[in-house]
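Hey, I was hoping to borrow your eyes for a little while. I've been puzzling over a protein and I'd love to understand its fold better. The fold is given in discrete form, as structure tokens running alongside the sequence. I'd be grateful if you could look everything over and explain what you see. No rush at all, and the record is pasted right below.
>
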Amino acid sequence: MKIATILEVLEKIAPLQLQESYDNAGLITGNRDWDCTGITISLDATEEVVLEAAAKGHNLVVAHHPIVFSGLKKITGNGYVEKTIITAIKKDIAIYAIHTNLDNVMDGVNGKIADLLKLNNRKPLQPKRDLLKKLVTFVPVAQADQVATALFEAGAGTIGQYSECGFQVEGLGSFKAGEGANPYVGQRGSRHYEKESRVEVIYPVLQESRVLEALLANHPYEEVAYDLYNLSNSHPGIGSGLVGELEESMPVRSFLEQLKQVFQVPVIRHSPLLKDSIRRVAICGGAGSFLINSALRNKADIYITGDMKYHEFFEANGRLVIADIGHFESEQYTVDLLYDILAKKFPTFAVFKTGVKTNPVNYYS
């Protein structure tokens, strides 16, 4: 099996186009055309993880964090990044990072955290914009439903929990077929008027090729008239962080104790406990200080993340509890998420979770 086959599965779940502009998700070393001998999954692609993969006979490391964020000017073995890259190249190990693109999908990093906390009524904490477009086309009235159905089946027309959303209005279209045309209706050389339906649907930008293929394959006209509009609407299923609700409210200290147990943390850094109970929970795996205001706007009782700085705790402003459980700790179960995805898709293939502890932060107690 080629490495490309494995990456296609991951990129279907978390397309690379969804990564943030500063990110470097994707294949960092190696080649998609290599035959894959096994997969090692880790949160971080350190030299120790690469050596572990090589010892197991694996030539693909799938990591959440990219080992390279920006361009390397020298590769001399100075620092852990350069050492890792040199070792990967020497050992013919492919390193693949699935980072903010996995953060930004509902069933990704934050979805895994929400599963562990048993949150309901989930939605992105900060939905992404510029990921939706609108298609408008003009179809003979008798074929309008056929075309609309094809567009829906190709992924268009979903708004939140509603599918097959569209709009149709009837009007009169006109055209004159040229001498080389083969018109569906009308005669060459004469203007023809046809009762048509204007069909409108929205669709995710990532589904554009499928939607247009469906349109062209099912529209009866030889030349299909259609318009594409960019939308600034937020995508209801893609974005940073996640907010959801517990089945029932919990005393704040009981919830923090549960948080410690679930994420196996010795200590939780938090803002003042000005709330008696917790029901609405906002989360962001990794470093999430940029979403504090989003958590406030979503009326969260608590915001769980990592890497909070001293002054950022003040931004809770007495309106919610900020709980810092640590960067690694908040994302540690991403390894389980990726393992479950790949082991289910390739049940007879060698897929392993790393045994290397990559958390660089230790606690003295």
Residues 131-231 form a domain with the Alpha-Beta Plaits fold (CATH 3.30.70.120).
